[in-house]
Design goal:
globular; 351 residues; 12 helices; 7-stranded parallel sheet; binds nicotinamide-adenine-dinucleotide; alpha/beta; two-stranded parallel ribbon
Length: 351
């Protein structure tokens, strides 16, 4: 298959592309405008592969989107491109509204036009819209998000993702354009921009800097190792039903403070501090984020039963792999940290 990946220079997109180039025969066109979160260096190991092409472009640029589709004639689009950082959406929502809503609408419209112009059947095409469990809002201590849960987004980020999910569904209902929406929980793993909770905590441990924790740190997320997410997306691409949505999570509900304590313990054993100091001494509780959702938890029964997906990593194994990756790839995240433009952003924390 020929896959057009939007946002392939970001965290999940680059893991997906590397996995596809390594383990499939698919051809990949990566369409990304390299915002602060996009990093071409993530794809260094595949950039010379003849099955990989990079196109620098904005999903809001309908002329370039049209030209790219007509020229490359993909069999499917996997749409990762988004503004993805919740904290930033609180301070500057406009870019979220533009990319996440308007950009998704352009992609839907132009890909439908491309199929019609080239006389391609809708049935054999797929538009996978990668979204988040945050569209469902906050859970209390009990319960899980199902595909049928009501939408109730809290932040500008999740509100824009909710809007784009509705657009993708509307294109199926109205035009029979074969969209599939995926709603996954928090991802972690290699190549995550170090403004997000896990890589930020690891990087701050390296530098013996404060480890900021929102509120009491009791917000719970259902952590998903990024390769498990990539494998779920591949199954959805191959066997998912148009018009459906699939929840993806791996039953790893952990509070933010537990995450930070776990990272501190592992760092204590891998890179012990001098003078019997412990990394957890660096923890600093800071005022909570406005509108901070308490708990997310995913019911993944549908993708497990219908498509046979099963996560390979639990949090204990996945976090050790992740920390080891950041230790081995210090040069990768130091370059991001040392970029002047990024420096003010890296004071932010997020889950
Ligand atoms: P990311 O912020 O790491 O990467 C986003 C990528 O999109 C970057 O490469 C950026 O350059 C590109 N991009 C942004 N605006 C663009 C535009 N207008 N045109 C073209 N490219 C543009 O994001 P991520 O963490 O890899 O997330 C990928 C997708 O998965 C997003 O849609 C996000 O909402 C969703 N998601 C992420 C998580 C998570 O934990 N990271 C969880 C659930 C859902």
């Amino acid at each position: 298959m020929k896959l057009l990946i939007t946002g392939g220079c970001g965290f999940i997109g680059s893991n997906f592309i590397i996995d596809q180039i390594k383990f499939s025969k698919n051809e990949i066109i990566n369409y990304d405008n390299i915002t602060y979160a996009g990093n071409k260096a993530n794809l260094k190991i595949v950039e010379k592969n003849s099955r990989y092409t990079f196109i620098k472009g904005d999903i809001c640029d309908n002329n370039l989107v049209k030209k790219t589709l007509l020229k490359t004639e993909p069999d499917a689009i996997i749409h990762f491109a988004a503004e993805s950082h919740v904290d930033r959406s609180i301070n500057e929502p406009n870019s979220f509204i533009k990319t996440n809503i308007y950009g998704t609408a352009i992609l839907l419209e132009e890909s439908m036009k491309y199929l019609k112009l080239k006389n391609k059947s809708f049935d054999s095409f797929r538009f996978i819209h990668v979204s988040t469990d945050e569209v469902f809002g906050s859970l209390g201590k009990k319960g899980f998000f199902k595909e049928t849960s009501h939408y109730n987004p809290s932040s500008p980020y999740s509100a824009t993702k909710a809007s784009s999910d509705h657009l993708a569904r509307a294109w199926f209902k109205t035009y029979k354009f074969p969209t599939i929406v995926t709603n996954c929980s928090n991802n972690y793993g290699p190549y995550q921009f170090p403004e997000k909770l896990i890589p930020l905590t690891i990087a701050n441990c390296f530098d013996e800097k404060e480890l900021p924790v929102y509120g009491k740190g009791d917000n719970v997320r259902d952590w998903l190792y990024v390769y498990d997410h990539c494998k779920a997306l591949e199954l959805i691409l191959l066997f998912g039903k148009a018009g459906e949505s699939y929840n993806i999570g791996s039953n790893n509900e952990i509070s933010n403070i537990e995450i930070i304590n776990t990272i501190c313990k592992i760092m204590d054993s891998l890179r012990p501090l001098k003078r019997s100091k412990k990394y957890r001494d660096l923890i600093k509780f800071v005022p909570d984020r406005p509108g901070h959702d308490y708990r997310y938890a995913i019911d993944s029964t549908k993708i497990k039963d219908e498509l046979g997906w099963k996560p390979q990593e639990n949090f204990k194994t996945g976090i050790v792999k992740t920390i080891n990756w950041y230790i081995k790839n210090e040069i990768w995240w130091r370059k991001i940290q040392n970029n002047k433009y990024n420096q003010e952003r890296l004071g932010l924390i997020n889950d």
